[in-house]
Amino acid sequence: MDTLLHFVNLVLHIDKFLGDFIHVYGTWVYAVLFLIVFCETGLVVLPFLPGDSLLFIGGAFCASGEMNLGLLIVLLLVAAVAGNTVNYMIGRAIGPRVFNSHIPFLERFLDRAALQKTHNFYEKHGGKTIVLARFIPVVRTFAPFVAGASEMTVSRFQLFNILGALFWVLLLVLLGYFFGNIPFIRQYLNVIVLVGIGAAVVPVVLGALWKVMRKNAAAK
């Protein structure tokens, strides 16, 4: 419980944490941001890391001269593309094996036909999914894994992986660079972060609930 509260406090005051880190460790902040973005996008078990907030606040610190804008953008782009690529390769390596394991316990819960449907969906709509998922916490961690598990073609995945990373990194870092140090935004940054996360997550949750309700209604 204490660990959870500490993490929530860190997310809500990420600007203070990052500022203190820069003052103490200087350029090591680039390595920390690289690792956080890489781990959030590359490791399925770490979807809770605050990538959006860090990009925005990193841009704000660039505007105040404490970080270099060009260097930050390049490092974050590399981290975002590499993270998604690793996530995709993990999904591609273990996803089909899990579905074709012929283990009775797993076959009871996994549907190979559903995997084929997912593959067809990603071949048709996967590009939009990979790009838009960049802006939705948690979803951006699982989207490349699912793309790999459903065997979305590598060339198609990488095209939209790079496009999504460009949109995500450039938009949030530059927003932070131009607006992050405005007194009003700086004062209410925590609220803005929460509103932003809510605006991204709530439509996804509502959409999922709507599909479940429609499915149940159709079944009845």
TrEMBL record:
Entry-linked InterPro entries: DedA-like, VTT_dom
Record has Coiled coil as a keyword: no
Record Pfam families: VTT_dom
TM stretches of this protein: 28-49, 69-90, 159-179, 191-210
Tree of life domain: Bacteria
Keywords tagged on the record: Cell membrane, Membrane, Transmembrane, Transmembrane helix
Subcellular location per the Swiss-Prot or TrEMBL entry: Cell membrane
Residue intervals of the VTT domain: 49-177
Any one GO cellular component localisation term in the record: plasma membrane
Membrane topology category: Multi-pass membrane protein
Protein family: Belongs to the DedA family.
PANTHER family named in the record: INNER MEMBRANE PROTEIN DEDA-RELATED, TRANSMEMBRANE PROTEIN
Protein name per its UniProtKB record: VTT domain-containing protein
Source organism of the structure: Paraburkholderia phytofirmans OLGA172
